[in-house]
Specification:
about 180 residues
């Protein structure tokens, strides 16, 4: 039965033991409140403030990062649009320059054509003039020789051949060399 006694001691209600257990609990609670609870709450409060500050800092940094990202996106978009505008202007400038060069080349070609036609006409007029002058000179020379000599067929052929060879030996002025 000794075991039964021990079991009954644990289940027995003793008002004195309850009283002293309650007093000890409250004293330990007061002592812990004075000694440990204050510093624990202080550390918890500091930790809570540090966490709140970290969260605020993270929010500010995130907002700043989002702002910087938006600025970068805007800058990239602006750079792209500027590059596209520069390319468009360059294409326009190249096309304008090409058009100007083509127009200039055409006008120069037309001017050269006009100059060439004018030069050809001048040379043609000069050649016709030289031919007429040479023909007139030859006619005069032939007439002079005919009037000075009585020609037979052989002499006439020789004289014609001589003047034909004179025509082929035209000097730089377009005149035959005079025979003495």
């Amino acid at each position: 039965m000794p075991i039964v006694l021990a079991a009954s001691n644990l289940v027995d209600v003793r008002p004195g033991l309850i009283f002293w257990t309650l007093v000890t609990f409250f004293l330990v609670a007061l002592l812990l409140r004075r000694v440990a609870w204050g510093p624990i709450l202080k550390v918890v409060d500091e930790r809570e403030k540090a966490i709140a500050a970290s969260i605020e800092s993270a929010k500010r940094e995130r907002a700043e990062a989002e702002r910087l990202l938006a600025e970068q996106k805007d800058a990239i978009q602006k750079a792209r649009s500027e590059a596209a505008e520069m390319m468009r202007r360059n294409v326009e400038d190249v096309e304008k320059l090409r058009t100007e060069l083509v127009a200039k080349a055409r006008s120069e070609a037309a001017a050269q054509k006009i100059d060439a036609l004018r030069e050809i006409e001048n040379e043609r007029v000069r050649a016709v003039h030289d031919i007429k002058k040479t023909a007139a000179d030859l006619a005069i020379q032939i007439t002079e020789k005919l009037l000075n000599k009585q020609l037979d067929d052989k002499t006439q052929k020789d004289l014609a051949n001589q003047y034909l060879s004179d025509i082929s030996r035209v000097t730089g002025t377009g005149r035959p060399e005079p025979k003495v």
